[in-house]
Design goal:
mainly alpha; three-stranded antiparallel sheet; 3% strand; elongated
């Protein structure tokens, strides 16, 4: 069983990915499955039937549906490999549906929160100075934490203000950064980095070692607590914020897709659902939502005056008191229908977040 797992992992590494983290995740999933089979006195993958696999899934019921779906994707790929290359055609997953992933709106920070987080660093302290440059880079370019850890100076063109990134699946992309940040990067390179660096990695610690993903998470948590931000922060929130703020400011979704390095547009479209969430929240908080129902009730009481005449007839302008006015007039007629159509379309989109 171990030999089949090893062969499959080597196959996946060569064909689909060269990510050590992905391979490690596949290995853990397959070993978990193997250990369960051995606990049931089953010593081969082809001897597992549908009922046994269903019982195995039952042991995973404490996991989120997205985690179970990911594991089942690994197992389906594994049995497909066994059928194609090992001549093992028994597949206990046939007929078993993968649980649907729940659509989760990604966590993000508002612009003011980003400013609060970055502007509260003390540049007089070397480690805080480095951290400010680090997190500014992550937000300004929408980088994954792993991409920031691996970032080297030969990937950054300060004159053109662009960063060459090699992301998931060895996909390359070019991301520009805002004017003025190139000067900060240059100053950082000639101060902190030149003092502590021993290789070309951009971000190192005070012991001249390359920062790690877990270390960056720790630095972010530490600073958030120090400045009193009462929320759980994680580095990927900066990437989510980057995408959200670009779309909020009118960027085309396909441009954002390229900047994030997403293979599929559906992955990027999760941020349009985020915009829908913001729109709905704003509408619910709109004071007119509280005022208009009161006006409507008042209008219904005033429809008949003491002489039996309607208030509309007594209105010099001849307008219906129940019609929207002021800001709400912007949603009349076609504009209102178009707004509803946009929201409806956004609600019906099928997206995947990754």
């Amino acid at each position: 069983m171990d030999e089949l797992i090893d062969r499959f992992l080597k196959y996946i590494y060569r064909k689909n990915t060269q990510s050590d983290k992905t391979i490690e995740s596949y290995k853990n999933d397959l070993n978990q499955y193997k250990e369960y089979l051995l606990s049931q006195s089953i010593d081969s993958f082809e001897s597992c039937d549908r009922l046994t696999f269903m019982n195995f899934l039952a042991t995973l019921d404490h996991l989120k549906s997205s985690s179970i779906a990911r594991k089942m994707s690994v197992y389906r790929s594994f049995y497909a490999y066994l059928a194609e290359y090992m001549g093992i055609n028994e597949n206990p997953l046939l007929g078993i549906q993968t649980p649907k992933k729940s659509k989760q709106i990604p966590d993000f920070l508002f612009v003011e929160e980003i400013q609060e987080f970055l502007n509260s660093y003390n540049d007089a302290k070397e480690d805080q100075y480095r951290d400010r440059i680090l997190f500014t880079m992550m937000y300004a370019c929408g980088l994954r934490v792993s991409e920031c850890v691996a970032l080297e100076w030969n990937q950054i063109d300060l004159n053109k203000r662009i960063v060459h990134i090699r992301g998931k699946g060895d996909k390359d992309r070019i991301v520009p950064f805002y004017q003025g940040f190139e000067k900060e990067l240059w100053e950082y390179k000639n101060s902190f980095w030149s003092k502590y660096a021993v290789d070309d990695h951009v971000f190192v610690n005070l012991r001249s070692k390359q920062l790690t993903s877990r270390g960056i998470q720790y630095l972010m948590d530490k600073h958030a607590k120090a400045i009193g931000m009462h929320m759980k922060l994680h580095p990927h929130m900066l990437r989510h914020s980057f995408a959200t703020h670009l779309l909020d400011n009118g960027a085309d979704i396909r441009v954002v897709q390229e900047l994030l390095g997403h293979s599929s547009l559906s992955t990027t479209q999760i941020y349009t659902h985020l915009q829908e969430f913001q729109v709905r929240s704003a509408i619910e908080e709109n004071p007119l939502g509280k005022v208009l129902p009161i006006n409507a009730a008042k209008a219904s009481l005033d429809t008949t005056d003491a002489a039996g005449e309607t208030s509309v007839e007594n209105d010099p302008a001849g307008e219906d008191a129940s019609e929207p006015s002021g800001p709400m007039a912007a949603f009349e007629g076609a504009a209102q229908d178009g707004f509803r159509a946009d929201i409806s379309a956004m609600s019906n989109e099928e997206t995947n977040d990754s």
